[in-house]
Amino acid sequence: PYQALHIALTPEDTLMVTGPNRVDCMDYRTGSTLWSSASLDDAYPLMAVSPSASLVCYATGHDLILADTATGNALHKAPLPTYTDDYGDSHPYDVEGLYSAPDGQRALLLLAGNDACIALWDAKTQEFTLTAESVHALHNVVFTDDAILYTAVQEFRPGNARIGSAYIYDTSYADLICLNSDGTKRWEQQLAYSQFDVGHDYELMYFPYPRENGQTAPAVIATAGEKMAILDIASGKILDRVDFPSVVVELALSGDTLLTAH
Question: Which residue in 155, 246, 251, 243 sits closest to 203, CA to CA?
């Protein structure tokens, strides 16, 4: 027995579980282990299960592995990018955030070395692209065919805070970034908000925005605190904006109806 660090449901209705230096696939009905990874160099490994493909992506401490969730067989293994420290020594970046595209063929990583940065990985080329984007904290990621969008705090700014049971409200900012597939920045928007709920500050979701001609435009819905904006993915233009009386903690689509939880 061990303390599970991350748990995810696979398309086969099994559970992917990470523990200290390991990734396991388990039958949740019986609790039996179906397969286990080799011992990993990373004591706290991260993983991302592709929602529409039987694939799991996880970091070992030195490599990024894309594996079949049914068998555990590694389909791709790519050495993590490295950085040079102040003494001239080379080290693999630490993976502090990992997100996978629905088809499992692309991943976005938050890497930490001398600085925190965003990297993109493509299974077809087996290559990492380190972007010029520095990030203080990463929260949500949405993949489209030709873009990757995420909500982040790019640098620490004083804002909302909680001290014990006391809440201090001030204007805070969330940065919404859209990258092209090659890692270059397409656009950036900033959402200012004043209310917060610890652990539920941001939501991000793909949304086919209805046009007057009956067509739809690829868009995303982004929330920060009590603010919500719908943005055009191609241009970053804000198509609609809503101010709620309380913090949005979850978004969902039911047919053509947008549901928000507060």
Answer: 251
Main-chain phi, psi angles of 23, to 5 degrees: -130, 130
Handedness of CA 130, 131, 136, 141 (dihedral sign): negative
Residue range 168-211, pLDDT digits in tens: 656 777 889 999 999 999 999 988 887 665 555 688 999 999 88
Tokens standing for 34? 């179906």
Residue 44 pLDDT: 85
Reported as a single tens digit per residue, the pLDDT across 111-124 is: 998 888 899 999 99
Rounded-to-integer distance, Cα 220 and Cα 234, Å: 10
What letter does residue 238 receive in the DSSP assignment? E
- Indicate the pTM of the whole model: 0.86
Enumerate residue ranges in the chain where pLDDT < 70.
Answer: 1, 154-170, 195-201
Q: Is there a contact between 151 and 175 (Cβ–Cβ < 8 Å)?
A: yes
Contact 135, 146 (CB under 8 A): no
Summary count for the chain: helices (H), strands (E)? 0, 26
Pairing mode, strands 90-92 and 257-261: unpaired
Q: What is the pLDDT of residue 199?
A: 54
Integer angstrom CA distances of residue 188 from 84, 137, 197, 237:
29, 16, 24, 10
Cβ atoms of residues 76 and 68 within 8 Å: no
Q: Pick the closest to residue 76 from 24, 123, 16, 125 (CA basis).
A: 123
List the structure tokens of 26.
Answer: 């388990």
